[in-house]
Amino acid sequence: MEKLTVLTLFGGNSSEHDVSTVSAASVISNIPRDKYDIIMLGITKDGRWLRYDGDIDLLPEDKWLEDESKLRPAYLVPDSSVGGIVEIVDGKAVTTKVDVVFPVLHGKNGEDGTVQGLLQLADLPFVGCDMLSSADCMDKAVTNALADRAGIDQAKWLSFTEHEYRNNPQKLLDEAAEKLGYPIFVKPANAGSSVGISKATDINSLADGIEVAFANDSKVVLEETVTGREVECAVLGNDEPIVATPGEIAPCNDFYDFDAKYVAGTSGLFIPARISDEQLKAVKAQAIKAYKALGCAGLSRVDFFVNDERILLNEINTIPGFTSISMYPKLFEHSGVSYPELLDRILRLAIERKESRR
Ligand SMILES: Nc1ncnc2c1ncn2[C@@H]1O[C@H](COP(=O)(O)OP(=O)(O)O)[C@@H](O)[C@H]1O
Ligand SMILES: [Mg+2]
Predict the structure, then answer these.
(1) What is the pLDDT along the chain (358 residues), one digit of tens a residue?
(2) Domain boundaries in the chain?
């Protein structure tokens, strides 16, 4: 079979840039080379696009940016007749065709529909959810609203914009206390990796938390604090998605904040999640329901809180962490799909989806 060219996008103008470069190093090292050739295209923190031809190990911590001789300005263009990237070589535009694009980008400007919209204009097959679904899953207020409509159980919540809050903060603070009760989780509607998230125990910490959230987005989501294990599902597929045995993360801090995710490194990971067989089955069914309700395709990690009484949706990550120790690949490994095989399937799904929409 002829080899396919995969364009991998990494980095990005996002608070999760550094997570992306680690995910990308794993993804790129594990894509089976007998089937795919790889082009690496990095996006810097300030939004420049550069093709990179160096060592994969240098992606983390942005070491790939250190050797200028391995970098060339290169762009994905909306013009669908190009079918790939445009590079500037010796002052001239050179195009290179690609067969499929893998955006290994987390958070804003990559996981939120922006890059997906560009890829749809370019008419290229790409890994993961389309523009609308990516945007819906990125925005926690939209995710919550769509989940409500689909009858998927979740924490009580409310959302408002900075403009609405500034007009009458006291009214919204009172409403939150009454509707949700303390402690209250405060989140920017669009962020990721727990950036800007806090847990408020009274009106003062709520007001402070709202300011922190507004520093990250002009819309916030407030949620009642729910108790339960944090159970995560790896979902894979287009119209008929499958779900691996759910896993569980046990945060080392009070909640799964940025530190617990990436710095402290002592959060526990359990596969399968430590819940009953019936609960495992029920969570898997909810994961598929949420995946379909949000219009996901390719892959997503669907996260829940599970206690003795309820299974509550938390959020959907359309481009979940993808290092070799990340939950998504680990869950499929547990279900018998190796990391390289998983990447192969994800890439095939991207091509299949494009073909089925012609
Ligand atoms: N309503 C809630 N009740 C209890 N804990 C929560 C709630 N919402 C979030 N958390 C905690 O905060 C963490 C990060 O929140 P999450 O919504 O998943 O944001 P992110 O998109 O940044 O991962 C969760 O993993 C969980 O530990
Ligand atoms: Mg999360």
Answers:
(1) 799 999 999 999 998 999 999 999 999 999 999 999 999 999 999 999 999 999 999 999 999 999 999 999 999 999 999 999 999 888 899 999 999 999 999 999 999 999 999 999 999 999 999 999 999 999 999 999 999 999 999 999 999 999 999 999 999 999 999 999 999 999 999 987 788 999 999 999 999 999 999 999 999 999 999 999 999 999 999 999 999 999 999 988 887 887 777 766 667 899 999 999 999 999 999 999 999 999 999 999 999 999 999 999 999 999 999 988 899 999 999 999 999 999 999 999 999 999 987 6
(2) 4-126, 137-153+227-356, 157-224
Is the distance from CB of 339 to CB of 328 less than 8 angstroms?
A: no
Q: Encoding tokens for residue 84?
A: 């790939």
Atom of ligand 1 nearest to the CA of 251: 27
The set of protein residues with a Cβ atom below 6 angstroms from ligand 1 is 155, 185, 187, 191-194, 197, 223, 225-226, 230, 251, 255-256, 303, 314-315
Mutation to probe ligand 1, out of 111, 194, 230 (largest number of atoms < 8 A from CB): 194
Determine the topology of domain 157-224 in CATH.
Dna Ligase; domain 1 (3.30.1490)
Contact 181, 153 (CB under 8 A): no
Copy the structure tokens of residue 357: 């929409």
Superfamily of domain 137-153+227-356: ATP-grasp fold, B domain (3.30.470.20)
- Six-digit token string for 327: 């939950």
Measured N-to-C along each axis, helices 140-149 and 131-138 cross at an angle, to the nearest 10 degrees, of 100
Please state which CATH number belongs to domain 4-126. 3.40.50.20
CA gap 262, 18 in Å, rounded: 10
Q: What is the pTM assigned to this prediction?
A: 0.96
